[in-house]
Amino acid sequence: MRLFKQVALFSTTLLMSKMALAALTFGTVGGATSVDSVTTPTKPIIYGGFAGTCGTTTTNTTCDTCTGNGLEPCNKNAVFPELILTLVLNTSTPITSTSDITLKIDSTTVNPTNIILGTTSVTITLPWSEICSKAINDSTCMADPLNHDLTITSATNSTGASAGTFTFHFISSVAPAAPSEYTDCPDDGTAVPANTGLCNFTAFPGDSKLYARGLAASDGYPTSTTGVNFKSAIFFYVKQTPGDSNATTVGQITNKSDSFEVPINVASMSKVYVSGLTNGENYCMVMANRDLVGNIYYFTPVASVSPDSLCGTPTPVAGLLDDKSCFIATAAFGSDMAPEVQSFRDFRNKYLLPYSWGREFVKTYYKYSPKYANMIAQNDTAKIAVRGVLWPLLFFARMSVAVGFWYALGFVLLAGLTLWGLYQRLILGRNVRGEL
């Protein structure tokens, strides 16, 4: 009995030791567009974006397909079928044989190019074509997007049970080749295809920036037609050469131009802008959509959109355009944080900036009001007088934001006509009769 217990203990120890070999944890990944090992640490997501055509490439690194070929779909870190994936996992103790390592997508065995065993790690290399071949039965990776798990198993024990596994999740997509532009969706009821991303904006100047005013999205955003969600807007821009027209400058923008990426939340799209620009210089920009795998597509249709709506000149004045103050209202009410000033901002953002006539009005106000605001700020009597003038406008602004511009306008006109009728009846009528 004692001998039997010793043999059992030895066997158990040997079996546990064998199982311990397979303790696998995340190390690094190479040869992918990007990797997310934070959201789900036990199952990192490997992203692969197929867009455009790689030029001269090596099989060890991604390529930049945003090469200046107009406004064509591209990816700054594109993958391609021959690109070698390098998966590094950490092990608590050495793995003794490469035969202990198996890779599977679903129930299909994947054949790695090479397995390198280290003292505390294992390195596995294989091309994207092998992943695509086993996952979607297409070694070119062009047929369908990837949305599959790759499970790596190490050091199975004598009973056939897995002693340790680690799983990666693969997500890929292929950028649509055509159309490369989105269908413009101004706020006029124009029907646009669903899931085609952000589809309208108007450039408007701020301090060292251009705002994307009136930013709008197609139905279903952030879902895309490729099956991989959109992540951000990316603006490609060019500084205008003196003497060039806006149309000429817009025509110079390509997918290799300077760019500025902005993560998008559909719940707060009113303050999207491109920053780091030079005040006093005119810039033109176009917008494209970027998805989670880095593919950039659905650009501004420059042939059918007014170039003037895509251009602007940043201005070094704090105020209307960057929401810091509202000149005359701020001077009258004493603070740019006053609720009255915020109400005027809300009216401006909703009913002036989205329209060309409103923007012209704002520009004119922006140009002339600082002088008078300074005069008001230095005179208490002027502040009281200006507040008296602004209160009716404030009432109209707040009502417009609350119930709509036309309802507010109708109410004000009705109230005005009623007051005028009372004035004629009660005041003018009495004067005519000699009662005053």
Query: What is the rounded Rg?
Result: 32 Å
Largest sheet: 6 strands, mixed
Mean pLDDT: 83
Silhouette: elongated
The helix content, as a percent range, equals 25-40%
Offer a few descriptive terms.
436 residues, alpha+beta, Immunoglobulin-like, 3 domains, five-stranded antiparallel sheet, 18 strands, elongated
Folded structure, characterized:
- The protein is an alpha+beta fold and 436 residues long.
- The protein has 3 domains: 2-174, no CATH class; 198-312, Immunoglobulins (Immunoglobulin-like); 327-403, no CATH class.
- The chain is built from 8 helices and 18 strands.
- It has helices at 2-20, 128-136, 246-251, 327-333, 339-352, 356-377, 380-403, 405-432, and strands spanning 24-30, 34-36, 45-50, 84-91, 101-105, 108-110, 114-117, 121-127, 147-154, 165-174, 198-206, 209-217, 230-239, 258-263, 273-275, 283-291, 296-297, 311-312.
- A 6-stranded mixed beta sheet has the order 2-3-10-9-5-6, covered by helices on one side. Strands 13, 14, 16, 17 and 18 form a 5-stranded antiparallel beta sheet that branches.
- A hairpin with a 3-residue loop joins β7 and β8 (121-127).
- α5 crosses α7 (380-403).
- The longest helix has 28 residues, at 405-432.
- The N and C termini lie far apart (127 Å).
- 35% of the residues are buried.
